[in-house]
Amino acid sequence: MYDLCYNKHSKTTCSVCIGGRHMEKGYTLTLEGKKSHFHELHMSFCGHSVCYPDNSIGPAAHPCYVLHYILDGKGQYQVDGRTYSLGKNQGFLIEPNVMSSYRSDHEDPWTYLWIGFEGSTARTLLEAMGFSHQSLTYSANCGSKLLKIVTAILKSELDGLEQELYLQAQLFQFFSCLSHDLSTDRTIFRSDKQNYYVRAAEEFIREHYADNITVQDIADAVEISRSYLSTLFQTVLHTSPSEYLADFRLTRAHEQLGITDDPVSKIAENCGYQNPLVFTRAFKKKVHVTPSQYRKSIREERKINIQQIRKQ
């Protein structure tokens, strides 16, 4: 399953439907692919969603940081083989290029807002707020204020530099409100070789997924046997190295189909697939439509949704 489509500087109302099943309804503003004057820290996207029961997002890797805040309901966040059960007034941080997933509760599905951001000072800011790879979940009783900020962003009708400056101000206001009442939760990790090898393998995949690498290449890079690597991935991440690599590549392809006009063959190559037909089969197996069909549906939905939001 995948999250809301990421469009170039577009404002949409969305109803995510995969395999004929509606997963969530919400609003999103996306700026990915648009140049920013603020290289140190800038917004990539933000949104607000009401999720249906058992709405599953991922496993997927995002190119930037993403903060989710739960306004109501509950669900689970999974990363690095750990599962966090979260509810109202709690949230979670998704780190760049780290495979993770999250699912709404069956009985009480969550409603959440999110904001994606990047830049050279993003990590420093998050560390100052108490976040780290060991502290990815948090609590904060400021939902109404954060929702007000995100709603103001989504309703903004500005453009150009004026819009960029406004969004920058709202981004800092978001962090200001959050940090005022923030309490991060620290997870104690085992400092053993198992976690070391898995982390090293994940880093190798993030750096080389576009190359024609194999599971054996990953095992060689971290200097362990292929069978032991597979055992570690199943133990720590509950997936195989080949599935992890395939999911990572398809996540990148999913993003590029939404924010670029590159041919499918080029996207396949950029994501480590030497044969476009192999890529198309893998993508269809995961998303249930071909890459071309997925891109076409995004663009058609984008036009309809922009028309709808302009009427509001």
TrEMBL record:
<dbReference type="Pfam" id="PF12833">
    <property type="entry name" value="HTH_18"/>
</dbReference>
<keyword id="KW-0805">Transcription regulation</keyword>
<dbReference type="GO" id="GO:0003700">
    <property type="term" value="F:DNA-binding transcription factor activity"/>
</dbReference>
<dbReference type="InterPro" id="IPR003313">
    <property type="entry name" value="AraC-bd"/>
</dbReference>
<keyword id="KW-0238">DNA-binding</keyword>
<dbReference type="InterPro" id="IPR009057">
    <property type="entry name" value="Homeodomain-like_sf"/>
</dbReference>
<dbReference type="GO" id="GO:0043565">
    <property type="term" value="F:sequence-specific DNA binding"/>
</dbReference>
<dbReference type="Pfam" id="PF02311">
    <property type="entry name" value="AraC_binding"/>
</dbReference>
<dbReference type="InterPro" id="IPR018060">
    <property type="entry name" value="HTH_AraC"/>
</dbReference>
<dbReference type="InterPro" id="IPR014710">
    <property type="entry name" value="RmlC-like_jellyroll"/>
</dbReference>
<dbReference type="InterPro" id="IPR037923">
    <property type="entry name" value="HTH-like"/>
</dbReference>
<feature type="domain" description="HTH araC/xylS-type">
    <location>
        <begin position="199"/>
        <end position="297"/>
    </location>
</feature>
<dbReference type="InterPro" id="IPR020449">
    <property type="entry name" value="Tscrpt_reg_AraC-type_HTH"/>
</dbReference>
<protein>
    <recommendedName>
        <fullName>HTH araC/xylS-type domain-containing protein</fullName>
    </recommendedName>
</protein>
<keyword id="KW-0804">Transcription</keyword>
